[in-house]
Amino acid sequence: xxxxxxxxNTAGMAPSALQGLIAANDGYARAxxxxxxxxxxxxxxxxxxxxxxxxxFVFSGTAANSIALSMxxxxxxxxxxxxxxxxxTDETGAPGFFGQGVGLIGLPGFSGKIDLLSLQAALExxxxxxxxxxxxxxxxxxxxxxTVYTEEExxxxxxxxxxxxxGVHMDGARLANAAAAGFDLTQIARLGVDxxxxxxxxxxxxxxEAIVMFDKSLARRIDNRLKQAGQVASKGRFLAAPLLGxxxxxxxxxxxxxxxxxxxxxxxxxxxxxxxxxxxxxxxxAVFVRxxxxxxxxxxxxxxxxxxxxxxxxxxxxxxxxxxxxVDAVLKAxxxx
Length: 337
What we know:
The chain has 337 residues and is α/β, with parallel strands linked by helices. It has helices at 15-24, 36-49, 61-72, 86-89, 94-98, 116-124, 151-163, 175-180, 187-191, 222-228, 237-249, 251-273, 293-301, 324-335; strands at residues 3-4, 54-58, 78-82, 103-107, 134-140, 167-172, 195-199, 209-213, 277-278, 286-290, 304-305, 307-308, 314-317. It is globular and about 55 Å long.
């Protein structure tokens, strides 16, 4: 394999994340997340969001999303989300598992963004006893198709949901890439998001995500909930330490900015010098390309791994570790297909 563009998960840990882990390994620390490393990492997140919030670190984005949604909807209720959202397509029913039956209502929209009219229609559906009514909205920033919601777009989606008294969850697995693209993190709480998943793994950590509860009432017995779900690490500092390394060094932002820049380089090269076309706007670190199956297979056979996505396009994801020469080399391979 020359390079794996299938996901930003294929990259290793960023040096600052690894250094954070090594530093946390020195000496002794309190167990179960009551240590100084965890506290510092939580403070770093609160500073970036400019909000007072309860923060907990868990092992995976699936667990973070699913536990978060179980706080916003009862088992007889459902969550509204884009039909291509990770919770709808890639989490094997985990929201329903953790939520003891919580349902999902998929909504359409171009390039991963929920269409406002479809949301309004769903909110206006009459409630009947034979199906799960919506109780919350989930938005993904940046989206599964590499686009970034503007503050105005999010406000238009969130305001009618909050007017109904429903909760709002944000899946921020690639929040760093959205921030690097210009999205203001301090607006998340102000827009009315109740609970955020603050991404670490795709930003260069190991397997670490943070559940950020702006609505502190959601944190009631949160530690009991996480313990029952197997998401409380006895050596909790090792969950927080890599993310702390990224945040204190600034690499959470700079690594994402580099990934976005590599995606722009790849997209420009595809448009200018290959026979293929882009399937979606390139606003974060993902590039989606219309490519026939035969060409995709040949590219993979040449050692350039890439992933055919839900809409049939081929996804290339750049990370903090993607190099300019790697992008140029895959473009040369694509020109020769």
